[in-house]
Amino acid sequence: MAEFKEISPNASAGAKLTNWFENRFPTMFDAYRVHMSEYYAPKNFNFWYIFGSLALLVLVIQIVTGIFLVMHYKPDAAKAFESVEYIMRDVPWGWLIRYMHSTGASAFFIVVYLHMFRGLLYGSYRKPRELVWIFGCAIFLALMGEAFMGYLLPWGQMSYWGAQVIVNLFSAIPFIGPDLALLIRGDYVVGDATLNRFFSFHVIAVPLVLLGLVVAHLLALHDVGSNNPDGIEIKKGPKGNRWSPTAPADGIPFHPYYSVHDIFGVCVFLIVFTAVIFFAPEAGGYFLEYNNFIPADPMVTPAHIAPVWYFTPYYSMLRAITTQMVYVLATCVVLGAAFGVFKARIPAIFKGIIAVGAAVVVALMFAIDAKFWGVVIMGGAVVIMFFLPWLDCSPARSIRYRPTWHKYVYAVFVVNFVILAYLGVQPPSPVGERVSQLGTLIYFGFFLLMPWWSAKGEPKPVPDRVTYTAH
Question: What one-character-per-residue DSSP string does 249-283 give?
């Protein structure tokens, strides 16, 4: 047992209260020092670094508003839509809680997409932060599951038919597909059993996983230290600053410096967030689709079924995989295997494995329906991000010191992602199909060709210490 710390009898009442708690709960104060007051972050953070704290804020908003919504929501196919209407019309401030939750869902993805893009720009996934990135991608995957299951709960037309379409995709998996889709639905059609399953996962199971991953993400980050816009490890630089002789010279305490920095970002975010809630909660049909204000009707199919905007890039890739596109993908597999066999400097046994593997994959692509490969591409678009730390071979970590043309590669990737998102909310068309097919190839080409293009070009000289201009 640790010895109690003594304090002067003349100390202030606040100091005495703090000392009383610290003597009885030292673990909490140690955690505060490790993760806040004595956690030294690089001194050159810019505005891109506010999105991590904003993601945490939105998570809290979603949990708190979700708790209040559950108090009045009924997970019953006959009463779910009516209970949402009751919350909106009769529960005091219920409309505000519901709009905070629905707007928060879109805000969550906006903030997370920007947070991940910052990691992409500054190489925050590179050694020694591979595990931080993997935990982050797992959070993104859990967030997608949480959003999809929550999307069914209002039991509107788009909720119902969107869930019907997505769940039916699992039936395309060979052998186990029909049974898997039946297990997810709990019935032969989306109905009361499906609603109860999704409600349980949305309210209890996935949030617990999400919270665990967030804690792991933060602990892993604070163990290895934060990256910075220069991509320089401050822990390897000189030691000693005004706060500690053993702290990195280019680091400053997270609290109070970056906690105040984040509070400013929170204030700006809340202004925008509340403006959307009070003036445009539907956001033109992107945050809340107009069809979702109509009760679910299994007998009436909407003219155009599309998921919420944050799923649409992946939905575009799913729709892009037609029988013709499978031939294109098979050609890409053959070309990739040929490059590995004839150009790559690897042992002969690995070349043989590549050749046999490619032959098996191509045979399966022609033997299995294109719908299945659409599901594979949609899932692969998320899974491939887990491997980013090993795909990037650039000598420079940050985009600041990479060849200038690398910025154009990233720009093309972002524009392509936005175009895919836009096409995902539009009705199918021949032109849209061709553009989405090209966009799918660009998306996967960005990652799969990264070991080649990221190593090309002469990087700019990287300074020994972080660059910083007071502002």
Answer: TTEEEIIIIIHHHHHHHHHHHHHHHHHHHHH-TTG
